[in-house]
Specification:
alpha+beta; 3-stranded antiparallel beta sheet
């Protein structure tokens, strides 16, 4: 069998020039061995107060940000990719309430995770505020969310006490 050496060299160069596959991307809140915190810090992060030129959807409550309304635009670079989230002022105020006692920026609530944190807290006031905001902005409230709020607000009787 005769082998063309030029062809072999060309094939070897092509194999070397092939791009390496990118490492698998992690979720923003995934806890890894080198990182034991829930919210990683973006490489670039900025919040701008912006007046809506058209209706937008809040990334926290899912409600409508009306044309002409002021909202917060969270944007920057995370894991090498750009992100841009529009959040109503009510949701950002609720996030400030949730994070008021958290000493480190690493412990604070990430953008787009407010609902998960609020419902996970079991705090009736926070859950009520979040659901009220969703209803005010026309976002759907799921059955389990309404049922959880109802259960938390139900007065406890002697038989319910642990």
């Amino acid at each position: 069998m005769v082998v063309d050496t030029d062809l072999v060299i060309l094939l070897q160069q092509c194999v070397k020039a092939r791009p390496k596959p990118a490492p698998p991307r992690r979720k923003r809140n995934e806890i890894t061995k080198e990182n034991n915190r829930m919210c990683e810090i973006a490489e670039v992060y900025k919040i701008d107060k912006t007046k809506a030129r058209k209706p937008h959807k809040c990334r926290e409550c899912g409600g409508v940000i009306a044309k002409g309304e002021i909202y917060n635009r969270h944007h920057g670079v995370f894991d090498g990719s750009g992100f841009d989230s529009r959040v109503c002022l009510d949701c950002d105020a609720l996030r400030a309430e949730v994070d008021k006692d958290k000493p480190s920026v690493y412990d604070q609530t990430c953008v787009e995770e407010l609902g998960e944190v609020v419902f996970g807290s079991g705090n009736t006031g926070l859950i009520r505020a979040f659901i009220t905001n969703k209803r005010k902005r026309g976002a759907p409230v799921t059955d389990w969310q309404a049922a959880l709020l109802e259960e938390l607000e139900r007065p406890k009787t002697q038989g319910d006490a642990p």
